Amino acid sequence: NEKAIQAGPKASEIPWSILGCCLVYYLAQPPAKLPLFAWLSCALFAWAIRTKPNGSGRDWWIAWGASGAMWLLLLHGIRLAFWPLTAGWIALSLYLAVYFPASLWISKRLYWDFKFPLALACAVGWTTCELLRAYVITGFACCSLAHSQTPWPIVLQIASHFGHYGVGFMMMLTSAWLVDFLQTRKDEQSEPIHWPKSSLNSIVRTSIFAWMILSYATWTARQNHLRQMEPIKPLGRFVLIQDHMPTMFDATQELIEQGWADYLQTTQRAIESIRERNPDSGKPNSDHVDLIVWPESVYAELSPMMFWDRGDRIPAELPVDRQGLEDGFERLDRNHAFKKRRLQTALGGTLPEMLVGTDVIDIRDGKMNRYNSALWIGRTTTDYYAKNHLVMFGEYIPILSWFPSIMQQIGLGTLSPGTHPKAWELPSGRRLMANVCFEDTVPHLMRRQVNELTRQGMAPDVMINISNDGWFRGSSILDHHLNSAILIAVENRIPVLIAANTGITAWIDGDGQVVERLPKMNPGWILAQPIPDGRTGYWSYWGDWPAILVALCGLLPVGKFVITKKWVGKKMGGQKNGPFENGEVRLHWS
């Protein structure tokens, strides 16, 4: 394949395409939010793959360094939360940076050794690493290729069948095919393409054009259908509240009490505004406000909610006897009743159902768990959803979490993860499910919870996320979080509502369109009236399996490398021409 190698870019040009790829990828994501640049990033990635098979050791270090700088910039808001997270920010960024050179290496090997078409090699290599990134070490799926396209919802529709991996796969497939097409036409001489590769090229072209045509047709048909069905009865009237509650490291008791009062005042203003729009509605009730939503942690006001089965055994970690536990339980119960009365007095009349964020202490069978929770305050019942997916370095620190005393010294309590999803039914019969904080950045968790609730006969009509993103001081982390929620809405074909402390509070429909959102750091509210979606994509049935099959193809070079090192290396004995020689990475087995 010497002619193709000579026709491609020189080795000295490889680092520039790598640097350019990382730069434009950064510009495609928040805060710049230039979605077209994501396609350019894919093209530069393909350009780097089309070079000679073996890069130098310098090239791989440059790829890792450029990717590391990109991730440090994308995630710099993490360091604003509190001081230990500066180390976590650096460690996470340098870890995530590994996936970029890994995807380059896999794509190169598929293209040069396994003779994959350039477009397919790039798409498989990239998707393999996106899938691994979403699972390894609890997973990190934010800032994927698909998330760069949230300003263009029409591009995202394939996610309802193949998840966000499918969007990234098709973006890379399309851009790399275009690069290969233009470069092949430019080359004066090229080798004949044999039928297996020619057939794959035909499949690639057909897939690209089918994706474009079906995406456009699906999008326009959906929009026309909605216009014809207007007016559509909404699922309910949900009031999403946003204000500013200080985070635990900034807060004093006085500031927390003031933050709670601010949320109460903003809620009061929201209800008064709704009454002014509906002068005949009278007092707020289920006919006019179905649910009021406060963000994560806001409702607690230094007083968690306690659930206790009143069993005989007292948890060993509690330094009190039974009478002391009884007194503590009654005190927390009185605090909760007092907060409900404050809300009822401020709003006037019957208090609508509420979904609020608070800490929950649950004592059952002599065991105590503390949860970060979404608390359901119904007319007749009080219940909670315990956050299932805890945030590393934010809610637990590996190894240190085994030592509660050390966690308390650095300002973190010991949290337990929840084990199951939860859904509640409104008086209208519509159901909602809740998730907390960054759980909506874990797509396989959201899919599993929706499916589990559906099997229980509690299929949710709307998903509500409550978050406290005040930690990140209005940085682009808030935008990354919103982008993840947009993809979750499309993947599960379910409206998503977000109530976030300091933002970004938003109403997203099942097509991934942001119907309404509030500015960062500004108090306000949204009266969300989402409509039922009713669609179900194949993603709900097969989940990540298409991406897993792609990743198995992506691991072919890894398998070949291992076999070569283990068996062929033994036969070569003491020869020095191994994969690393003279500072170069020589991973070519032809």
* CATH architecture term of the largest domain: 4-Layer Sandwich
- The CATH homologous superfamily of the largest domain is named Carbon-nitrogen hydrolase
Calculate Rg over CA atoms. 27 Å
- Indicate the proportion of strand residues: 5-15%
Total domains: 2
Number of strands: 15
Give the overall pLDDT as a whole number. Answer: 86
Break the fold down into its secondary structure elements and pairings.
Layout: H1 2-7, H2 14-28, H3 36-49, H4 57-74, H5 84-96, H6 99-112, H7 118-135, H8 153-156, H9 159-186, H10 195-229, E1 238-242, H11 253-277, E2 291-293, E3 305-308, H12 322-347, E4 353-364, E5 367-377, E6 382-386, H13 404-409, E7 423-425, E8 431-436, H14 443-455, E9 462-468, H15 477-492, E10 496-501, E11 506-508, E12 514-517, E13 524-528, H16 539-542, H17 545-554, H18 556-572, E14 580-581, E15 584-585
